Amino acid sequence: MKNSRAWRRFFQFSAIFNFSAAFAMLFAPELLFEILMMSDALTAEAIPWLHQFAGLVMVFGMGYWLVSTNPMLHKDIVWMGCVGKTVVFAIAWIDIAFFAAPIGFGILVIADLIFAMFFAMVWKAKE
Prior knowledge:
- The chain crosses the membrane at residues 10-29, 49-67, 79-99, 105-123.
- Keywords: Membrane, Transmembrane, Transmembrane helix.
- The chain has helices at residues 4-27, 29-35, 46-69, 75-99, 103-108, 110-124.
- By secondary structure, it is mainly alpha-helical.
- It has one domain (4-124).
């Protein structure tokens, strides 16, 4: 795989992106929801769900860090990340279109779709 060093750094960046998102959900949810234009949605009932989602985001980040050690060896995690990030993007925009969810979250998950496209390139790559 050409530029394997660049791909390793890309997956480290992907992991850091996920760790940052999880950290924000766990330790700065008020700020995160304000940035995403969702401050009205941060209720006591939403916090446990937010923490569960943060845990999943963190685990995916751990997977991306593992991928960064050898992207070709961990193509199964790359595939899972590709699917996961695409699903997050799709669900966010379905929520915006049909359930009047705030646009802020939809803007953020555009990054997930971009990551998914790069993940697909690695997943399809030959060694």
